[in-house]
Amino acid sequence: MTKRILVIDDEDGVREIIQICLESMTDWEVLTASSGREGIEIAQSEHPDVIMLDVMMPYMDGPTTFKQLQAITETCDIPTILLTAKAQSCEQQEFLDLGVAGLITKPFLPEDLVMRICEILNWNYMTYILSG
């Protein structure tokens, strides 16, 4: 069954890179949102299998967006992976303490992205990689 991934990031380039990477390496469907508010709306209507959420965004940052997603019945059970450029372990621990499924640090190598998502969510990597 095809997985559906929602990518919430205010940077167009980051959303595009993630979408291209995931769609070219897997059969996953990638939904995108450019803000926390838009992401919450899409999550409620589309109920993706996982949300990838940027930490640093204007207006509503990633942790605030995550807390709002957790407060909504339709979205509180969707695993969320934070995307962060903050590499310090104390900052990363603060994010994990929020209750997210995991963290992926930017920048990342496109070929590592699918593997990290599968590791975090305990999905079988080989099940999702398209043989080229």
Automatic annotation (TrEMBL):
<dbReference type="InterPro" id="IPR050595">
    <property type="entry name" value="Bact_response_regulator"/>
</dbReference>
<dbReference type="InterPro" id="IPR001789">
    <property type="entry name" value="Sig_transdc_resp-reg_receiver"/>
</dbReference>
<dbReference type="InterPro" id="IPR011006">
    <property type="entry name" value="CheY-like_superfamily"/>
</dbReference>
<feature type="modified residue" description="4-aspartylphosphate">
    <location>
        <position position="54"/>
    </location>
</feature>
<protein>
    <submittedName>
        <fullName>Response regulator</fullName>
    </submittedName>
</protein>
<dbReference type="Pfam" id="PF00072">
    <property type="entry name" value="Response_reg"/>
</dbReference>
<feature type="domain" description="Response regulatory">
    <location>
        <begin position="4"/>
        <end position="121"/>
    </location>
</feature>
<keyword id="KW-0597">Phosphoprotein</keyword>
